[in-house]
Queue: 3 jobs
Job 1
Amino acid sequence: MQKSSIANDQRSAAETADLIRNGKISSVEVVSSLLRRIAKWNPRINAFAVLQADAALKRAEALDRMAAKGKWVGILHGVPFTIKECVDIKGMPTSLGTRKLRNNKAGKNAPVVDRILKAGGVLLGKTTLSEAFADWQCESENFGRTRNPWNLRKTTGGSSGGACAAVASGMSLFDVGSDLGGSIRNPAHFCGVYGFKPTEGRIPVAGQRDRVDSAKPAPILNALGPIARSAADLELLFPVLASCPAKRIHLDVRQLKIAYMPEFPEIGAEPDIRDAVKKVVMRLKRKGCGVELTRPDIDYEALWKLRETLRDIVTGVSKESLRKYAGERKTYIDLWEKFFKSYDFFLCPVTARTAWNHCRPYKDPWNKNGRGYPRMFYYTTLFNLTGHPALSVPSGMDRHGLPVGVQMASGLNRDEKLLAFARL
């Protein structure tokens, strides 16, 4: 599938919200258009776990009637969206793609779902995910394989693969994914969309299931965040999801200090990945930003080992206490916070390579220096350990015509500033 057939003429969520608000288009027209795209493309991409077409049209009709009377629910009035399958929606299954949870229907909405609906969103359905989050691809027993809209032979990444594929192909205007180790940012990079992991705790994770044997979400490392087609979309959506006042931040680029690394020597990266980071940095330098090739002086191997230990605890693999490692985690958080007092933002790869051909789970398609499959995702897991906000920003294409994202991060609770930076 070529770019001209999938991504050229699709509006963003922010643009659509403005058109509806100004009476240029109705919610029913938008929903109907997306349903036609879903009928055309989803049989090939397979991004939807649940589709509720009739309910979406019914809500769109009701919102249009309100708009005709000058009544508006909120800033997302009439805007269609989807939600990753692991997030509870009343009456819909939350199965994580597993046979064991196939009939596990949610008794109520997750807070993020209610916040979007309260703002006027129109729910289209749920999107697919990696089975029980067990791989960085998107395939499960319940839903099968989800394919990358840019090349159907390629993976979408995971675990929010269906979310990113739906947004990239114009079947959804935005989605909410989950991120315990890059599960928003990795597929956003593979699919050429914006994916944002906020500061830990800014958006509630209640109502998100990340374990087969427990309905409680991971208390640390974990985040829910928006996936969309533009930085403006993320700025529109973040206050809704975080239930905070909207802030329009202006950045003086001449005052910004940017740190960057085209690759980490412990991980490596393909040439197209390194080049993408360098090109973004050079563009920012031409705008007037100060740039420096640097990162905190940290034992990164120890940091990643700690993250794996904590992940095993919060997902139930290990029975150790989180408190045992709280001090060690805080040390790394404080080191990065000190770094962000000297630099406004940090840029690096999202993942060590672009999307690869579908393969068996954990079959190693990239083995830089013999270091193995999970290591190429350490760029994202770093900021799950520290809790800092980070996002994947589409930054061109590789030599094979596949999207490349660049990861941008900033200090704790500088989410709005980071999203403003992504607009530059």
Note: Confidence is low (pLDDT under 50) at residues 1-8.
Job 2
Amino acid sequence: MIQTIKKAWAIPELRKKIVFTALILLIFRIGNAIPVPYVDTKLLGDYLSQMSTTVLGLYDVMSGGAFASATVFALGVQPYINSSIIIQLLTIAIPPLERLAREGGEEGKKKIQSITRYATVAIAILQGWGYYALMKNASILTNTGVWAALVIIISFIAGSSFVMWMGEQVTEFGIGNGISIILFAGILSRVPSMVSGMSISLKSGTMQWWHALLVVIGILALIVLITWVNGAERRIPVQYAKRQVGRKMYGGQSSTLPMKVNMSGVLPVIFAQSIASLPITIWTFIGMPKEGTVSYSIYNAIDTKSVIYMVVYFIMIIGFSYFYSSIQFNPVEIANNLKKQGGFIPGFRPGQPTVQFIQKVLNRITMFGAIYLGIVAICPLIVGKIIGNSSLAIGGTSVIIVVGVALETVKALENQMLMRQYKGFLE
């Protein structure tokens, strides 16, 4: 990765893109340090530290710690991610949107992007109001008047919209993958505080040295596993029949149909974690049950450190992996496209046999990818249970995002350098 950045820095055009991206990330970090008015950030930090294993803890990680400080960019990229997922699902459920996505071309993509932006603002309004209500109910605000409510909610909405705009600017004028880069920067910014917290725990004796060693080895092992699986794919051989057009003969070539092992990325983990931790989040809002009661026993049974939670979490990851793979990869559509282009899979007739074979391969690959995601998500929970640190509950999600975005960024830079070489050769 460092070598790729060095090579890209030597090219003036790519150097400008890297500098532009760095400036956008600097603005993002400055916004993450500016708190909104009328909020007691110390009380808010103490309150959210008690809920680090709930959905709010996941939001705090995704925002780079801005959520726990109620900064201008507290909502981060969450509204945009949620709106993108919703619009993606609606394009399958609503035929006009599906036609717009498939047949609309570049103009159709622009319209869908515009719809996603409006949906982002709408979700930001709901989340901003919900965050304000949470702080008001927890007596964290220094002013509960109407003017204070408007200032806080509008600040959250404006911050989220500005983050979305910055992501689009990085995609257009920077090195690409704007939203992913901002998400990457937010998560990575928590590393220094995590290291300092671990060193303080080691000095005070609350954490043993072998606990810290176990965490470091686990993170390195996860990075190696994610890097290996991220590039893994099954390539189905495809043969194209010869056809004559006029006096020329076309086709007769062989190709492959690539199918990534982890098609859905980190989305199944995020969705599964949000839903699996929802009961404990609601219970925490209502109030902790008293010790010795039946409610307290149920609370401990479904807590994010319990075995029941881990099993449900793992099963949900597998379910969402199959759901997203079915959305992103349609065997019937792939088989029809191959048939139209005169292609076929050796050993299988075009039509239904090809569909069945692709579906069979897809199911096997998805199962392997789902188990891989489950292992990456569950391992930090198990390590956290061993060393007694519940803050590792969302460590797997963070590592998947960071490593995945880093690999995508390196690939994007390499592609841009390759395009420049082709351009120079043609000119």
Note: The longest helix spans residues 352-387.
Job 3
Amino acid sequence: MSKKILLILFILFLSLQAETIWVDCNSQKDKETGTKEYPFRKISDAIKISKEEDEIIIKEGIYKEAIQTKSGIKIKSEGRVIISGYKEIKGWGKYEKNIWKTSSDREIDELFVRNKRIEIARYPEKMWLKVEKFEEKDNIYKIYNSELKNLKDIKNFEARILNSTTNTFFTCPVLNFNKEEGFFEIGKQPYLKLTEKDLFYLQHNSKFIKSNQWAIEKENDKFIIYFYPENEEDLKFTETTGNTERVLSLINVKNVEIEGLEICGGNTYGVWIDGCENITIKNCIIYNNKHVGLSVNKSKNVKILKNIVLFNGNGVSVGASSSNVEVLNNEIAFNNIDGLIVSWGAENITVKGNYIHHHILYGHPDNMQTYRNVKNLKIQDNLLVCGGQSIMMEETYDVELKNNIIMGAGAYSVIFGHQNTDNV
């Protein structure tokens, strides 16, 4: 009897041992067990059977799936692993000359070919135009510039305005265009107080398109996408951020380590961490996610280490009362708005050894921004280069700011703003 009990305990012990689970989307095997010989084809299938202390190894390939982890597991790559939230754009037909078009049920604001963001067609192609004169009536601004008289009679486009008052970018649909008098009309927007110091360009019209540019126009209940590819082969690889809100989610889990993945194409977030503890995200490349590359919320003891985070809406966000978060030795660059945001009750945050640069595009861009009751923040040994502003702080308390190199801000290098940043 005692031998049977020992045997059962031994089998139970073996079943509880940490295992390695393999994933290979390119596997041609006729069965999937998670072994190296018979790997799963989907990461989510490996996660389903995993238990604490297991390691999931993902072999090289493109995985088009949304993933949610369990507690206590490690996920790492072997080779280049891309976890993609992109949606393919299909149905291209010739429009005119080298321009192709297709239709979409939803508006898109980004187009990618082989992971590369395609430039939006605009006028003028490189420079900005000045608001030479404007008129204000009811809820309408009428904006004049003599160069507008050179345009063809067009419709369905937007104005991108750099407002000198707020140092902020605004995107405004054009309601009316008058070529003969050289003006267009836009509706007023909150916080946009137009001045004759403001600059603008026009975008998203098929008449503006040059090689390797795109535009989108609304037509009845559809959206028409126009694209001038460098070669027709590119039409097979057109994508936009997909219907998946989050590519990789960690929700209410503990003791998880993610290493060596590329995470892209999320319609909101690339990596979403919420209600978690003891999380490490390291050596990942997180890019082309619409809202935020990596977002930490209501979590503690999180380490963001040696990642590259670029070409997202915002780069990295730490907030929602998160605590004891370390952002260490990352490159955060070329995101559309802000690079690193620390906000909404975050406390005991360390930002050290990062290279944060080139946040100069939309909204009110900052290399780093802190706001809404941030406490005990250390900013050390970072290089911050080329931002609309380098560091913008408000409602931030007990800050240690030392040994940073900060240069190349479009407006201010460091702002302790709104008379509510204390003890720096």
Note: Residues 9-14 have pLDDT under 50 and may be disordered.
